[in-house]
Amino acid sequence: MAGEPQPDCLFCKIVSGEVPATIVRETETTVAFRDINPQAPVHVLVIPRLHHPDAAALAAAEPAVAADVLREAGQVAADEKIEDTGYRIVLNTGAGAGQTVFHAHAHVLGGRGLQWPPG
Fold first, then answer.
1. Measured in Å, how far apart are the chain's first and last C-alpha atoms?
2. DSSP-assigned beta bridge partners for residue 34
3. How do residues 18-52 score in pLDDT, each as one tens digit?
4. d(CA 58, CA 2)
5. pTM for the structure as a whole
6. Which sequence positions are flagged as catalytic?
7. How far, in Å, are 46, 83, 102 from residue 93 at the CA level?
8. What would you measure as the largest C-alpha separation in the chain, in angstroms?
9. Are strands 23-26 and 42-48 parallel, antiparallel or unpaired?
């Protein structure tokens, strides 16, 4: 059920502390941690504490929490000192877009040139 922790969800397990992660920021509604397979020198995931399968579902059910995720993505960029050089926030929705963990999350990528269009 949306909003409830899912026993088979990796990110729900990170939120609960069951699975370790390198946490860089936490708020009442979000957790930010380093990606285990970084695609850039800075690659941090920002997730809502609540389980929603993707960004669209999160935005529909909890628009304030979706805004929190984006706000925290900007704060991660500031903390990682990439806000002035540029960074990308990526929200993959669905397997065809590359989503592999079906818990809404934003990737914050930076620290190198990011080409457009993305690969």
1. 33
2. 44
3. 999 999 999 999 999 999 999 999 999 999 999 99
4. 9
5. 0.95
6. 105
7. 15, 25, 8
8. 40
9. unpaired
Residue from 72, 81, 79, 62 nearest 106 by CA: 72
Alpha carbon distances (Å) from 69 to 7, 90, 113, 116, 119: 22, 12, 23, 23, 24
Q: For 71-102, what is each residue's pLDDT tens digit?
A: 999 999 999 999 999 999 999 999 999 999 99
What span, in angstroms and rounded, lies between the C-alpha atoms of 56 and 61?
A: 9
Residue in 89, 108, 90 with CA at minimum distance from that of residue 99? 90
The long-range contacts involving 27-35, CB below 8 angstroms and separated by at least 24 positions, are 27/68, 27/72, 29/64, 29/65, 29/68, 30/65, 30/68, 30/69, 30/72, 32/72, 32/73, 32/76, 32/108, 35/107
Instruction: Report the distance separating Cα 64 and Cα 21, nearest Å.
Output: 25
